[in-house]
Amino acid sequence: MVRNTGPTRPFGMMDRLGYMFGDFGNDFTFLLSSMFLMKFYTDVMDVAAGLVGAMMMLARVVDAFTDVAMGQICDRSRPGKKGKFAPWLRRMCGPVALASFLMYAVWFKNMPMGFKIFWMLFTYLLWGSIFYTSINIPYGSMASAITAEPNQRASLSSFRTVGATLASTVIGVVLPLVVYYEDANGNTVLSGEKMAAAALACSIGAVICYLLCYVMTTERVKMEKVTEKFSFKKLLKVLIGNRALIGIVVAALLLLLAQLTLSGMGNFIYPNYFGNREAMSVATMLSSLITILLSTVIVRLASAYGKRELSTMGALVGAGAMLLAFFLHTKNVWVFVGLYMAATLGFAFFNLLCWSMITDVIDDDEIRTGTRSDGTIYAVYSFARKLGQAASAGLTGGLLSLAGYTAATAFDTSVVNGIYNITCLVPAAGFLLLALGLRFLYPLNKNTVEKNAQILKEKRGE
């Protein structure tokens, strides 16, 4: 049940900026992992790319339990003065930041391989499956509690993506200029010591951003404690019968597969294929600028044309750009950067809107079942995003191994050509499947979302 209580500060820019800082904090560690962790373990710790990818996929099996468990904890927790979800940001910001820093333990690079693999798996599970889950599930669920208005939720989704984009700018623009250096042969290689220092800086930044989110946001739509006994069988039945949730889950998985492969492979294609780390920084900076500019108009566009409709169109643009890059197989880094910008514009539509789309799914589920399960549904959605992350890491790690990539062969002609093909084809396939999934699986078009919002508004007597 949802109830509105007492006078509170009206929804406004402070909430938007506060919610933005939340994903800024999230992506200080999440993007650092998705962009640099495989490169760190292959090039610095000398662990095979296929093994790193397999480790990331294995961790997602654990997430199948921890994500749903955290969703249940959120739904069943008693709301406090600060609300039901925000307190988790304050509780868990320190542990998630510390675990992220420990993943880049360069001081263990000369240890036996068995120990390095153990440390890699232990710290990755500690960060992603436990601490990151315990802060990300409540943070995502907060959007439903901050406001009940669809357009205001769309603005929260947009600002959340701006926060992620700012983190991407720091990590993708600044770090390549800091953590890489040229070796005696003129090759651009990663410094383990500088990578560890960068991880520490990002962890400190994450804590600051989480606390800003905690202080600046207000939960207005008070969620009552769920008291019904948990039934895993009932949960599966509800999820299987929820077409909107299935659609957004598939879409999230495919988005992350495409987007994270594209960003993660940047640490291979720019230094190894193009021999140009500066272009990587420029590409990330321009990508961030495109996303921020689009965020200024995305709410109006979504209101006019619909979230599903815009996201489908954008995915098709992204697929076309990466297919063109593959067929050109250019040696000109700036041609590739231009096509990367087109792909960024394409997937930015869904990226900016996906967080408000999951609140639309939660609303739709409440109308169908009469029960509101923000934490549980968001946990399932978060798990799907982690599956996309795992699929990206596992697939690219396996493909890099098949292409013959090791620290010793990193600049061989056949290997760098393989890197180029992976960078183009995996995202292109992901974007194309994303468009198909949104069009044929996800049922919440513009009219349905508006109708659901009106039904719930009348139900709450607003």
Automatic annotation (TrEMBL):
Keywords: Membrane, Transmembrane, Transmembrane helix. The chain crosses the membrane at residues 47-68, 88-107, 119-139, 159-181, 196-217, 238-262, 282-303, 310-328, 334-358, 387-407, 419-442. It comes from the Bacteria. It comes from Clostridium porci. Pfam families: MFS_2. One of its GO terms (molecular function) is symporter activity. InterPro entries: MFS_2, MFS_trans_sf, Na/Gal_symport. Coiled coil: none annotated. This is MFS transporter. One of its GO terms (biological process) is sodium ion transport. GO terms for cellular component: plasma membrane.
